[in-house]
């Protein structure tokens, strides 16, 4: 038998690539049930740049396994949530008389779609500065006597990370049940020995959706982006800050502007439930939550929130809120739908802060309709991007929002990472979800939807202060953007449906 010629080998390779792309395209159309714009975008990538397109699909596009991968988690979560509600919730109480009547349908939507119970006995402290937030957190961690449940997308092995780890190790040695969830992507660069310290002290550490190969893994999607801490079932933290020195303003982006909540009251049980569900998915060592379901939280005393200097931090009482989770295991895009409902409910203004502005058509049209209707819509985004190409992606959507009357500002005093949205004088949301399709659909997120004039007023003051430290992007400024920005904008807008 003669040798096979190189030309024949290449012919076979080309045929395999061609038919492989045909097969992948067929799967994409008939099995994944994506939205049409995303489907067409991927088909073009696969057919016109077959090899590179296939690699891009592996890293950013794979969605086929989502339903199977998280189906068991979704079923377990629904069972646990139903049990919790049966034990604790009187449905007649899910809409408080103190909430304005016009928010009834929104509360009902989040209850029905996200099983987000409304609670009204909450004490809340708001942080916009990392130093204040982490000093308060460390103080609360040191006072823990029963358990510490903590999950962060990023937990760095740096000065701040080591300081918090030292506290966790010490509490574990004291017999406190310390459990930590990190994300396989967000904390992939941290050495295993850093977390092993906690395990050797008696604590527990799990990685959510581990990477097969940390440096070349294709598991970009389905990350656990939540930042959630529960201490003794009495104190909860939720918001935008991860654990790392950059969140104290020590990184290359300078001052880090973010928003985080410290919560006491009935909503802490909702944050604890969120942690339990994520832990039981990621760890073989399941949490038996029977005692948690029956706990009498009415006897909990309020624990003051202290600054570094020991002074009492101002807090808000009797706050009404819903803890809303969403992710690839959710039937609906709960947080995104909550944002859309907030914008639609607004009668005067909508203020948004987000590091990313990569919108799907529904959110884009909702913002434009609000602005065209005379609602004062303002959005603050960063001047400096924290990821390659993000500024181009942001600007591509800026160009579509400006003609509708949306006012957009670029924060210049460092980096704005805050994920907040305010509608009029009472309704607001603070959490981990950005204004982008990845947070809405692909990642696990959690946000607090709040119905409170005091919290709204404090967030409004912070927004106005941030606006003063920003440059407004007028239509003239947008039209005069550089050729390089125009190229990045066009490229990122083209691939935005692929996210």
Walkthrough of the structure:
The protein contains 18 helices and 20 strands. With 499 residues, it is α/β, with parallel strands linked by helices. Strand 6 and strand 7 (235-239) form a beta hairpin. The N and C termini lie far apart (49 Å).
Largest sheet: 9 strands, mixed
Helix tally?
A: 18
Order of neighbouring strands in the sheet with most strands: 1-10-19-17-16-11-13-14-20
- The poorly predicted ranges are 215-219
- Give average pLDDT, whole number: 84
Task: Report, as a whole number of angstroms, the end-to-end distance.
Answer: 49 Å
Strand content: 15-25%
Backbone structural class: alpha/beta
Shape annotation: globular
Helix content: 40-55%
Rg over C-alpha atoms, rounded to the nearest angstrom? 23 Å
State the total count of DSSP E strands.
20
């Amino acid at each position: 038998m003669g040798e096979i010629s190189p030309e024949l080998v290449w012919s076979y390779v080309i045929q395999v690539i061609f038919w492989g792309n045909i097969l992948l395209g067929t799967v994409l159309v008939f099995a994944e049930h994506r939205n049409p714009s995303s489907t067409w975008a991927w088909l073009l990538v696969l057919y016109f740049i077959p090899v590179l397109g296939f690699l891009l699909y592996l890293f950013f596009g794979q969605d086929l396994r989502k339903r199977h991968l998280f189906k068991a988690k979704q079923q377990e979560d629904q069972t646990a949530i139903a049990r919790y509600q049966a034990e604790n919730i009187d449905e007649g109480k899910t809409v408080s008389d103190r909430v304005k009547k016009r928010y009834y349908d929104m509360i009902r939507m989040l209850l029905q779609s996200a099983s987000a119970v409304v609670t009204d006995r909450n004490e809340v402290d708001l942080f916009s500065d990392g130093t204040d937030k982490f000093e308060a957190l460390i103080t609360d961690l040191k006072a823990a006597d029963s358990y510490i449940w903590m999950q962060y997308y990023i937990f760095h092995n740096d000065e701040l990370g080591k300081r918090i780890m030292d506290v966790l190790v010490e509490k574990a040695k004291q017999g406190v049940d310390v459990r930590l969830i990190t994300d396989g992507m967000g904390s992939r660069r941290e050495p295993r020995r850093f977390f092993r310290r906690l395990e050797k002290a008696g604590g527990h550490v799990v990685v959510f959706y581990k990477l097969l190969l940390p440096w070349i893994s294709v598991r970009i999607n389905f990350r656990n982006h939540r930042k959630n801490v529960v201490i003794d079932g009495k104190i909860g933290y939720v918001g935008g800050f991860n654990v790392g020195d950059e969140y104290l303003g020590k990184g290359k982006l300078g001052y880090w502007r973010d928003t985080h909540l410290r919560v006491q009251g009935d909503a802490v049980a909702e944050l604890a439930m969120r942690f339990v569900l994520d832990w039981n998915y990621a760890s073989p060592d399941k949490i038996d939550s029977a005692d948690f379901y029956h706990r009498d939280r009415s006897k909990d005393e309020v624990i003051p929130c202290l600054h570094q200097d020991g002074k009492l931090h101002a807090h808000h009482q009797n706050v009404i809120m819903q803890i809303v989770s969403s992710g690839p295991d959710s039937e609906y895009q709960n947080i995104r739908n909550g944002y859309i409902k907030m914008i639609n409910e607004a009668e005067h203004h909508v203020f948004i802060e987000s590091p990313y502005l990569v919108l799907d058509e529904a959110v884009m049209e909702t913002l434009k309709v609000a602005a065209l209707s005379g609602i004062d819509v303002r959005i603050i985004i960063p001047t400096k991007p924290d990821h390659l190409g993000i500024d181009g992606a942001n600007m591509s959507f800026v160009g579509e929002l400006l003609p509708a009357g949306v006012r957009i500002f670029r924060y210049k005093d460092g980096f704005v990472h805050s994920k907040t949205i305010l509608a009029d004088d009472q309704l607001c949301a603070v959490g981990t979800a950005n204004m982008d399709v990845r947070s809405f659909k692909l990642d696990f997120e959690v946000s607090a939807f709040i119905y409170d004039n005091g919290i709204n007023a404090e967030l409004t003051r912070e927004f106005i202060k941030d606006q003063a430290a920003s440059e407004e992007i007028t239509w003239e400024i947008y039209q005069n953007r550089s050729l390089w920005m125009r190229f990045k904008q066009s490229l990122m807008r083209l691939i935005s449906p692929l996210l």
